[in-house]
């Protein structure tokens, strides 16, 4: 059990993880004693490594090789041993510069995945806000042709949803403008899911039946707010996996890319982060997605003071620099949240 580890075992485990992250090769006893951190013989170090292997924190990839961390070893390292470092000033500047200078929500979210990929050399990932999470700001209607209307819904934080409607009743351009004004006032500052309920309630009231314009506006509003668009997962830099030696194994890289193609697994994982409203580190077999290809997913929620809107993070090999990557993901989520307050 982790509680049974003494200080020497903890420091040796920390050293093995950090050495393996740096070199990418199995770590042996002589390699550790040469680091100068431990005043013990190679024989004593071998015994400590054997104990950590017996407890499941390390494993030997080959019979004559050194040892590498297991998922359990990484988990104990992340939860107990890692000493996180604040992002370097240059990294903070790059994150601010990339996110603050974008204008639309889609551009900001795409840039968040790009900047994380650029800084970590792992795949940057963003879970976009659900349409139902949008707080309604206004709605506009644009005639496309005689029986087709484009509804443009604008959320408080810059989210824009377009939906083409087929109308089976006559409506003039002037009526579309008045319907837009009426619905924008009725639904202002209301979450989209609640907006649908408010429209249904208005339609149930008898007075709507006596006002032709109101009835048309409500029918347009009901159709426009019936959005089926799910969250999207934006991924930048999946080719970075090919740069890592552990993904030289063809079957491993195939398993990873199959998992990336099955977006529902990643979506489910990132949605867990959004629901719990806190950063998560999923290592290897800890999740259905991260088990594929032996990867780690580090993700943090972003949003406004009113609500969590989505998730931002990275996907990389379990052999990643957790000391640096965890603070970068956390800082990116903080900057993204502050930007969304102003979008």
From TrEMBL:
GO biological process: negative regulation of DNA-templated transcription
Cited SUPFAM superfamilies: GAF domain-like (SSF55781), Winged helix' DNA-binding domain (SSF46785)
PANTHER family in the record: HEAT-INDUCIBLE TRANSCRIPTION REPRESSOR HRCA
Membrane-spanning intervals of the chain: none
Encoding gene per record: hrcA
Repressor is among the record's keywords: yes
Species assigned in the record: Corallococcus coralloides (strain ATCC 25202 / DSM 2259 / NBRC 100086 / M2)
Cleaved signal peptide residues: none
Family designation: Belongs to the HrcA family.
Described function: Negative regulator of class I heat shock genes (grpE-dnaK-dnaJ and groELS operons). Prevents heat-shock induction of these operons.
Protein name: Heat-inducible transcription repressor HrcA
Keyword Iron on entry: no
Stretches assigned to the Heat-inducible transcription repressor HrcA C-terminal domain: 106-326
GO molecular function: DNA binding
InterPro entries, per the entry: GAF-like_dom_sf (IPR029016), HrcA (IPR002571), HrcA_C (IPR021153), WH-like_DNA-bd_sf (IPR036388), WH_DNA-bd_sf (IPR036390), WHTH_transcript_rep_HrcA_IDD (IPR023120)
